[in-house]
Design a protein that fits this description.
It contains six helices and two strands. By secondary structure, the protein is mostly helical. The chain has one domain: Winged helix-like DNA-binding domain superfamily/Winged helix DNA-binding domain (Arc Repressor Mutant, subunit A), CATH 1.10.10.10. A two-stranded antiparallel sheet has the order 1-2.
Length: about 120
C-alpha cells in the first residue's frame, strides 16, 4: 500500500472538482437555461408549448429558445413529448433529473437578490 502525500490528494481532488464544475457549466451555461428550467418547474401542471414558453420568457428569440430546449433535452433536464393540447403538438416539461437543479437555482436566485441589494447600496 502506497502512502500519497496530502498535497497530491488535494491536487487530485481539486482537479476532479474542476472537471465536475465544467460538467455543470456544459449542462447549464448560457443566459437562458436556468430561466427555462425555473419556468418549467413553476408550470409543471400546465401544457408548455414552444410559443407559450417564448411568451413567458421575455427577450428570448425563437432560434435561441429552440437551441436551448434541444440542449436541455440532450442533457436529460427536460422532456419533449407529443400533445394534442398545443398548436405544434409538442410540449416541454422538466424531468426528474432537471428538478434536482432547482435547489441550486434557488440558491443562485437568493445570492443574486443579495448581490443586487449590495450593488444598489454601493451606488447610493
Amino acid at each position: 500500500m502506497s502512502m500519497e502525500k496530502p498535497d497530491k490528494i488535494q491536487s487530485r481532488q481539486c482537479i476532479q472538482e474542476l472537471i465536475e464544475l465544467r460538467d455543470i457549466f456544459d449542462a447549464l451555461s448560457g443566459k437562458w437555461k436556468l430561466p427555462l428550467l425555473q419556468y418549467l418547474y413553476n408550470r409543471q401542471d400546465e401544457p408548455n408549448g414552444f410559443r407559450k414558453i417564448e411568451q413567458g420568457i421575455a427577450g428570448i428569440s425563437d432560434k435561441m429558445l429552440a437551441k436551448e430546449l434541444k440542449q436541455l433535452e440532450s442533457n436529460h433536464l427536460i422532456i419533449r413529448s407529443s400533445s394534442e393540447t398545443t398548436s405544434s403538438g409538442i410540449i416541454y416539461s422538466i424531468s426528474e433529473h432537471g428538478k434536482t437543479a432547482i435547489p441550486v437555482i434557488e440558491v443562485l436566485v437568493s445570492w443574486g437578490r443579495s448581490h443586487r441589494e449590495l450593488a444598489k447600496a454601493i451606488i447610493r
